[in-house]
Design brief:
Length: 485
């Protein structure tokens, strides 16, 4: 027998995601009978209210029976009816024959240990769990929020039950006597029939309503719901079934890192992912590389026809790697998906020579844009240079808003790097006093501007006129300027 266990709960078919963990997978012929255990996808308590304004779909408890709120009169606010639904079609292969079904629930609070019969009735109308969450014991409910199931509403407050208090079958699928605090089980041929119907026609699956003793007071029993913090206390439906013969092959496709047939990688490993499915169930997804290497992936069963898979860290060789992903089912039917990956490891940056450059004192400087070979993206950093100088990390261009004159050239070091390595280059920047046109030398074209500054007839970048670098523009700059010509 193959046994599968649900570890948690959610909402809708997708809610079984991550909840259905395969405890034992068939590696030879398919077993004659299988078993699956699943938790609810939704549960809630219908709380009697003339206005239908009370709900507790988001709580940790379910209440069933009649409370002691109005013992002297007729039940007008004291009835409680849980509704609970399981996603059978996601847990059991289509075409299976249900042989038995049983429901286990933990009863955690009661006013009396007197045994009371609680029946399971099939719900006839679709309903929504909602989010309302009463505090503490949750027996009284709280204000309904949009979408809650209530005494009057399948979907508060726009869609109603046909019958106040819920639409359910007049015939019980199973019943059991619930007395003192403890674990109780419902099991019958009627439950198996109900599960079979839900499997064959999922649209008819609205779950069960739990109907307790309602003609006398203080019969209410509190059960732990699907959101109870103790996982072992949550409701659990056990289904035994005989699967159909598996003649169909699985489906499988690659959707990450691309759904295209080819891909280019600059890294030495690659991760793959995608969907798979099978009428009985995908049990394994494996891979093989045409240039060497093979292994298995990880499958996560959501439904039998929806089993996402992942493969991480596939090593690549330089060249074209043809990766074949194979999905297998329990009887070794298989289907392949193929991705061709061209792996080019790329190259580290190599910076072309950078020419020395000139600047003018006090005049904003922007260097030429350097070039470098190598696999992009390439990032540039300034390793050394005068204070106030910056670099554009994307282009490598160096900028200095206010160059300061110096007799010796400034040494500039830049670095280019990518994921494969780095390279550095040095170049020099001349910012000499008296060089008004920024050509790096003192010559005749600088004489006129220098004289104008001495005569206070010019005021543009005056730091260039301080040729002797004493922070003063005066006659002492003349011999320094002259000697530099």
């Amino acid at each position: 027998m193959k046994s599968q266990v649900v570890a948690g709960y959610g909402t809708g078919c997708a809610a079984v995601r991550g909840l259905l963990a395969v405890a034992a997978l068939l590696t030879a012929a398919q077993a004659a009978a299988d078993q699956v255990q699943i938790g609810p996808i939704k549960d809630a308590t219908l709380i009697q209210s003339a206005t239908g304004s009370l709900a507790n779909g988001g709580g940790d408890y379910l209440h069933c029976g009649r409370t002691n709120q109005n013992p002297a009169g007729a039940a007008t606010i004291s009835l409680r009816r849980p509704v609970i639904q399981f996603d059978v079609s996601c847990a059991v292969p289509p075409g299976s024959t249900i042989t038995s079904a049983s429901l286990r629930m933990n009863m955690s609070r009661t006013k009396s240990n007197t045994a009371r019969s609680i029946a399971l009735r099939r719900v006839l109308t679709a309903w929504n769990e909602g989010t309302a969450n009463d505090a503490d014991n949750e027996g009284s409910g709280t204000n309904a929020t949009p979408g809650d199931v209530t005494w009057l509403h399948t979907f508060y407050n726009t869609t109603n039950w046909t019958t106040i208090g819920g639409d359910f079958s007049g015939v019980s699928d199973a019943s059991t006597n619930v007395g003192a605090i403890g674990v109780y089980t419902w099991s019958s041929a009627g439950m198996a029939t109900a599960v079979q119907g839900w499997l064959n026609t999922p649209a008819t699956n609205n779950g069960w309503l739990m109907l307790g003793v309602e003609n006398i007071t203080a019969t209410a029993k509190r059960f732990d719901s699907r959101t109870h913090p103790v996982a072992a206390n949550r409701p659990l439906l056990t289904i035994n079934y005989t699967p159909p013969a598996d003649a169909a092959s699985p489906t499988v496709s690659i959707t990450s890192p691309t759904s295209l047939p080819t891909y280019v990688s600059a890294t030495a490993t690659i991760d793959l992912a995608g969907p798979s499915g099978d009428d009985i169930g995908v049990t394994q997804v494996s891979w093989i590389n045409s240039l060497g290497g093979s292994g298995n992936g990880v499958v996560t069963k959501i439904c039998y026809n929806n089993t996402p898979w992942t493969i991480t860290g596939i090593p690549l060789q330089i060249g074209t790697n043809v990766l074949t992903v194979t999905a297998r089912d329990a009887v070794n039917n298989m289907t392949n998906a193929v991705l061709s990956v061209d792996y080019n490891p790329g190259s580290p940056p190599v910076i072309d020579p950078i020419a020395d450059q000139n600047g003018s004192c006090g005049v904003s400087f922007a260097s030429i844009v350097p070039s470098a070979s190598g696999t992009p993206p390439i990032t540039w950093t300034l390793m050394s240079g005068p204070g106030g100088m910056t670099i554009n990390g994307g282009t490598g261009q160096v900028m200095w808003p206010s160059p300061v004159a110096a007799v010796a050239p400034y040494n500039i070091t830049v670095k280019a790097m990518n994921g494969l390595g780095s390279d550095t280059k040095n170049w020099q920047l001349k910012v000499r006093p008296g060089d008004f046109n920024g050509d790096g030398t003192l010559n005749a074209v600088d004489v006129g501007p220098f004289v104008d500054h001495l005569l206070l007839q010019a005021f543009d970048h005056p730091c260039a006129a301080d040729v002797n670098l004493d922070t003063q523009i005066d006659g002492d700059d003349i011999p320094a300027f002259t000697s530099g010509l």
